DNA sequence: CCCTTCATATAGCAATGCTATAGGTGATAC
DNA sequence: GTATCACCTATAGCATTGCTATATGAAGGG
């Protein structure tokens, strides 16, 4: 019921904490369970880490490095905003794959005191966005862009974690990601003059859809389906 | 050192919890402190609320109502997306003014289980976005829009709460708000340059029709026809 | 061999959420 | 009036939590 006794107690404590955090389904992980699994008594934990939070910080540092370290020394693309997109995706993936670690890092918000993990994540993003600003791709000051993107990134990840794994909709991530990145980007492909569709009733909407379908002939429906679909549309727009 | 003894114990407990949550600077609030301040012993708390979480839920329900209730019965603007903007701002304001209550509501993420407060907030937003979809102002399906907006909204609020009050940058909120709302909106036309305009207007019309059908429940189609019809609509409105 | 220093253990404290059990209090039935 | 019964509250205490005062062991330098 305990770990590799070849390792020094400090490492065993870290390993035990990781394992318990990964397996306890969101329930709190006690120092006693950790020390027990590590085959060690309480004072050793506090000797090495000072705190329970100190231990978790050490655990989190490992996980953080594990997912983001490669990003630190990485050669930069010529498109910094693509780097930002990749970091966003890595962030979300980390949250999904290690929800407990993620919640230790970003889930414990306390008023008026930023966690240093948030600061680290900010720094990583900041680097990319400074580069983007230099290249003239930014619409707003880098610090503002960083906060907006990171806030949305964390919000999306928390929401995905909270959702039952079965019904997780990952488009949420892509959509929100592109939304905030586009908003801070100056080379935004804002193809404007999309005429607002004035539809306030079923009938008007049906007519609009009918017209749109006939003109663009999309691939989502087979021809027979399309035929029936248009017939129903006709029926809807006739009556009422 | 205790509250109005005219009130029944249940109310005193609620009042004490509110007061302690508001004054303790992010530190945990214990049941003992609450019962002590309420001039009541432990079993009364558990008799009335079952749980510590039950008590907090009741407290939160009050705060929730306090800030969002007016929104529920409110007359709707002719511009639903403006309603969404107003709700976003109210959400952030609530988080800033009552950070402890807010954190009880939205700060305790646990893997795989959505809090019912999130569900309530979703429902409120959903209402507005359904209206927006009916009016043809939406670019994506309402449920997706709701999640994206709410996730960003919570993320921004959490980040603002975590920042030292002195250096809070509220432009973060406006910026991110407009980013996500614009992204789901068809009016502002962030059309991806890759997708042809005709297709996107089909999508908008399909979403609008879908929303209109679901809200008005017309008689022109049988229930089986309606089911298939909606399924096709869903397929069309998926921007592959 | 003694002394210092680091690392671990024994034992226990105060605070936490919660509960088994009993007492009290009011309304209703007779 | 009195008995009954449901509801509300109190006494006392349990198990678990994070953490620590103190002591013991081992390793190395003088």
Q: Number of DSSP strands of chain A?
A: 0
The chain pair forming the largest interface, with residue counts per chain, is:
A-B, 77 and 81 residues
What's the rounded overall pLDDT mean of chain A? 80
CATH class of the largest domain in chain A: Mainly Alpha
* Count of folded domains of chain A: 3
Question: Rg of chain A from C-alpha positions?
Answer: 25 Å
Describe the overall structure:
The structure is a homodimer of 240-residue chains. Chain A has 240 residues and is mainly alpha-helical. Chain A has 3 domains: 9-50, Arc Repressor Mutant, subunit A; 66-184, Tetracycline Repressor, domain 2 (Orthogonal Bundle); 202-238, no CATH class. Helices cover 68% and strands 0% of the residues of chain A. The radius of gyration of chain A is 25 Å and the shape is globular. At the A-B interface, α6, α8, α9, α10 and α11 of A face α6, α8, α9, α10 and α11 of B. Chain A binds a DNA duplex (30 and 30 nucleotides) through residues 9, 28, 30-32, 40-48, 51-52.
Brief descriptors of the model:
3 domains; Tetracycline Repressor, domain 2; mainly alpha; homodimer; 240 residues; DNA-binding
């Amino acid at each position: 019921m305990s770990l590799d006794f070849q390792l020094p107690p400090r490492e065993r404590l870290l390993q035990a904490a990781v394992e318990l955090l990964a397996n306890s389904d969101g329930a709190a992980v006690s120092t006693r369970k950790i020390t027990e699994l590590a085959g060690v008594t309480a004072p050793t934990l506090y000797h090495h880490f000072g705190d329970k939070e100190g231990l978790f910080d050490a655990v989190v540092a490992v996980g953080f490095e594990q997912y983001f370290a490669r990003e630190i020394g990485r050669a930069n693309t010529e498109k910094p905003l693509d780097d930002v997109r990749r970091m966003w995706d890595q962030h979300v993936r980390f949250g999904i794959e290690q929800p407990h670690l993620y919640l230790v890092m970003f889930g414990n918000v306390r008023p008026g005191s930023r966690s240093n993990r948030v600061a680290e994540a900010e720094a990583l993003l900041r680097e990319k966005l400074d580069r983007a600003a230099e290249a003239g791709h930014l619409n707003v000051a880098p610090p503002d862009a960083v906060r907006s993107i990171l806030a949305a990134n964390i919000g999306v990840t928390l929401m995905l974690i909270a959702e039952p794994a079965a019904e997780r909709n990952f488009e949420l991530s892509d959509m929100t990601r592109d939304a905030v990145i586009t908003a801070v980007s100056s080379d935004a492909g804002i193809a404007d003059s999309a005429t607002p569709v004035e539809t306030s009733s079923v009938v008007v909407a049906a007519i609009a859809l009918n017209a749109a379908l006939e003109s663009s002939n999309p691939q989502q429906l087979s021809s027979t389906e399309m035929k029936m679909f248009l017939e129903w549309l006709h029926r809807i727009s006739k009556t009422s």
